[in-house]
Design a protein that fits this description.
Blueprint lengths: L2 H9 L2 H9 L4 H10 L1 H12 L1 E6 L8 H11 L9 E6 L14 H9 L8 E10 L2 H6 L7 E10 L1 H4 L6 E5 L2 E3 L17 E5 L4 H13 L8 E3 L11 H6 L6 E5 L21 E6 L5 H17 L3 E8 L4 H4 L3 H11 L6 E8 L4 H6 L2 H7 L3 E5 L9
Parallel strand pairs: 1-2, 2-3, 3-4, 4-5, 4-6, 5-7, 7-8, 8-9, 9-10, 10-11, 11-12, 12-13
Helix pairs in contact: 2-4, 3-4, 5-6
């Protein structure tokens, strides 16, 4: 930076300099700002460290990223206070002869880093096919944490008791376990989870432990939002959870069933007394008889569900022509959504970009009746009903 530029910076109000740095995108340019002048250092550091992501590879022949990060925080402890979001991915690489639950050097560094993050609000912890060790559980006692996404083979339930401000939880194939060392907490100290997302693939035994955990300890007594879109196990296993939260749930997202005749009933949505928003994902690439069952379930659900503030339908099919390949069903859906009863204040469709016009063409009455309250947006194969 030239001497003239430095003089200009010293003459500017600090608030204006901070605003300029806030508009800089990319860590590379933020690092340049941090080095350019001391007036830009503080805000640049806050931007650089507010969101971090590291990968733990369990490699023994090189220094792990978490070890390097620990060195930075030890040298400059104030930087740890800037972290608001932290993503941690641990690869499932176990050396021959090494115990599966043995902490690597990278994980040991995490045990020291996490307690230093006094303002951490969002944590994504991915340890696929690995157990979260007791040492890491103790390090996760983060009183400021609001949102947690956790993927692991086994997790001790005491981790929830150490997160009093937790409001959003996303569990991915987690087996929750209990132990004799768990100390029951006072109800006022328990986390109140308002938003819960469950992603489970063909692991029914884990659902039993999960529903028992949540309904027995008061974690979801005030649950507002439940997303089970990627819940590939029988929804019947969720009945206990739905009944427990039937007076509080306002948002529910789920997928259409693949089959209705295999003894796996769908949840009874009518028991949710305060339901305001319903999201439904259509599965793509199905044979005709399976598509028929999806449509049948959808029409029955929309007929008996209470009036809603928002109905969202997501189509995971990648080929636009396949989305609208059942014209009779689309006419029936158009008649239902355009009904004079106006059961759904807002209707939202999401699909691949090339299917937008096809959807509008297949919903003429709904388009005319709802006007701006009908929204057709583009998205990926995975829906995001409640951002």
């Amino acid at each position: 930076m030239s001497s003239t530029s430095r003089i200009i910076l010293t003459q500017l109000p600090q608030e204006l300099i901070d605003h300029i740095v806030l508009r800089v995108d990319g860590s590379r340019y933020l690092k340049q700002c941090a080095l350019a002048h001391r007036s830009m250092l503080h805000m640049s550091q806050r931007r650089i460290f507010e969101s971090l992501a590291i990968i733990i590879t369990h490699a023994k022949d090189r220094i792990e990223p978490s070890q390097r990060l620990l060195g930075v925080f030890i040298a400059s402890p104030h930087l740890a206070r800037y972290v608001r979001m932290f993503n941690i991915l641990a690869y499932d690489i176990i050396a021959q002869g090494e115990a599966a639950d043995q902490d690597s050097a990278g994980e040991v560094a995490l045990h020291v880093i996490l307690p230093m993050l006094s303002n951490l609000e969002i944590l994504h912890l991915a340890f696929p096919k690995r157990r979260i060790s007791n040492n890491l559980v103790h390090a996760l006692a983060l009183p400021s944490l609001v949102a947690l996404t956790i993927e692991a083979d086994e997790v001790h339930r005491s981790i929830l008791d150490a997160l009093p401000c937790l409001q959003q939880l996303h569990c991915i194939n987690v087996l929750w376990i209990s132990g004799t060392e768990t100390v029951p907490l006072e109800p006022a100290l328990l986390p109140i989870i308002l938003k819960l997302q469950l992603t489970y693939y063909h692991l029914p035994s884990r659902i039993e432990a999960l529903t028992d955990l949540f309904t027995s300890h008061g974690y979801v007594d005030k649950l507002i939002s439940l997303d089970v879109t990627w819940f590939t196990i029988s929804y019947a296993r969720l009945d206990k959870l739905l009944l427990h939260c039937q007076k509080t749930i306002q948002q529910l997202a789920l997928r259409c069933p693949r089959s209705l005749g295999n003894g796996q009933p769908m949840p009874d949505i009518t028991v949710l007394h305060d339901l305001q928003e319903l999201g439904i994902m259509f599965l793509g690439n199905l044979e005709m008889h399976l598509r028929e069952q999806q449509w049948l379930w959808l029409f029955e659900t929309l007929e008996f569900v209470r009036p809603l503030r928002k109905l969202a339908l997501h189509f995971s099919e990648q080929k636009p022509a396949l989305i609208v390949r059942d014209p009779a069903k689309w006419r029936q859906l158009d008649d239902l959504l355009a009904s004079p009863r106006r059961k759904f204040a807002t209707v939202e469709f999401s699909c691949v970009e090339r299917a937008q016009k096809l959807l509008q063409q297949n919903l003429p009455r709904t388009t005319a009746n709802l006007g701006s309250n009908l929204r057709i947006r583009t998205g990926g194969l995975s829906p995001n009903f409640f951002p």
